[in-house]
Specification:
This protein is an alpha+beta fold and 170 residues long. 20% of the residues lie in helices and 40% in strands. It contains 2 helices and 9 strands, in the order βαββββββαββ. The strands form 2 sheets. The chain has a 7-stranded antiparallel sheet with strand order 1-7-6-5-4-3-2. Strands 8-9 form a two-stranded antiparallel ribbon. The longest helix is centred in the C-terminal third of the chain and has 24 residues.
């Protein structure tokens, strides 16, 4: 099953990339879609999973409506502003789940964020494809809306403040 969600944001690609990638482990600071988040250490990564060599950290742990998940960074491309994580701890009908996030400039002060979700489902449960797509959208659409609100909000708006390289975003 593949599912892609996108959102256009009126903020620079660099600022949004910094929030998504360099503040990756602090996602709970700016979205209600994640209740808690914290960095993974290398010893938390299973032996059969390879962390992207260029990734600045192995991944993060998150508590979401789906439960507690480990999100291990398996691809990282700073120049392309793209990373992919492998989700561990997903429900048993999912045998593998990855999310690729890409930030693409669309103008000097605007960008598009896309999240490409790929899930492999166990056996005949692939028939649940439409149900899972609705469920994924139900989690990721609020996440993307929170990202847009945080990235676009002026500092005086009262939106959650997020520190970015000494400057405040939102």
């Amino acid at each position: 099953m593949q599912h892609t969600l996108t959102i256009d944001i009126d903020a620079t690609a660099d600022a949004v990339w910094h929030l998504l990638a360099h503040r990756y482990c602090e996602v709970a600071d700016w979205t209600d879609a994640v209740k808690r988040s914290w960095p993974m250490t290398a010893d938390m990564v299973p032996d059969d999973v390879t962390v992207a060599p260029a990734a600045p950290f192995p991944g993060r742990m998150v508590v979401t409506p789906l439960g507690q998940l480990a999100e291990v960074l398996i691809e990282w491309d700073e120049e392309a502003r793209s990373f992919t994580f492998l989700a561990l701890g997903v429900p048993g009908i999912v045998t593998r789940s990855t999310d690729k996030t890409t930030v693409t400039p669309t103008g000097p002060a605007s960008c598009r964020v896309s999240i490409d979700v790929e899930m492999e489902l166990w056996g005949p449960l692939s028939l649940l494809d439409p149900v899972l797509k609705r469920s994924i959208s139900g989690v990721l659409n609020p996440f993307l809306e929170d990202l847009k609100r945080t990235a676009e909000a002026p500092p005086s708006s009262g939106a959650r403040a997020v520190e970015m390289d000494g400057a405040r975003l939102a």
